[in-house]
What does this fold into?
Amino acid sequence: MAQPSTAQSSNALTVLFERDPRILSRPRSAPLASLIFPLESASLDLRIDGGATFRVDRSMFALVPARVDHRLVALSAVAPTLTLLIGPKAEDLVAREYAAHFDRRAFRRILGEGRTFARTRWFDELAHRYLFERHDCGLHASQASAFLETEITKELYFLGREVLDRSTRASAIHEEAPLIVRARAHLEARLFDAFSIRDLAQRCHCSESTLLRAFQRELDTTPITYLRHRRLDEAVLLLESGRYNVSEVALRVGYTNLPAFTVAFQKRFGVLPSRLRSATPAQRVPPQGTPSVRRLRKSL
It folds into this structure.
């Protein structure tokens, strides 16, 4: 595999960071599954040897299975790109923290059937914070690093589970249907706006029944359930920021009934929101928008 200018290892995730298109374009084949995140405005073509080409950019990231030959072709003069190699300890971290919701066999299948995914705000924030913790701060065994490794792996697992039943082995990477990509992009851009199936269908230029069938086929869920899950993902970020209490977070993500929010949150994450909110400052990741995060983004 091409060796980027920055490579740092841990038992859970290995961090590779590169911005030089010439180095990115070298042939790659890692012994571990790889997550590829273009940063900032970078846009890349992911070319699978003997297979298809897929675009990864600020709206999409890719999971490449272990030992799959591929290249990254940058579409700009500078292309800051984060690659995370998923080591065996990552599976153990999630299995310990989310035992009731985690299936090891399903996770290994997800890693073996890579694909492209729409980038959620929460996953994007996790990736940036982890790069800051490991690359900028040089902290390899901190509580924040362990938390981020667990959350990144957990988010990948749940994203993979959403599409596992429809996975294909026609190529090493599976690309989502254009209709789903458009729908998810619209939902992400208006995450807390009023929602209706009719409006989403109109914006995606399809009928309501076509939209519902596409979500069921591609994601094994409905648009409203997908939206609820994403809002709960954002609730984690708000709770971790320490700025809001649980009731305020519930209202911000669309729940007027606190018990309903608590039940939904615990069902999705296996922990009460009050427990996450009461975590000690040393265990919390720095809130979004703190100077450390802004400095990271400027440095890329």
Remarks:
- Strands lie at 6-8, 13-18, 34-38, 44-48, 53-56, 60-64, 70-74, 81-86, 116-118.
- Residues 1-6, 167-172, 280-300 have pLDDT under 50 and may be disordered.
- Residues 94 and 154 are 6 Å apart (CA to CA).
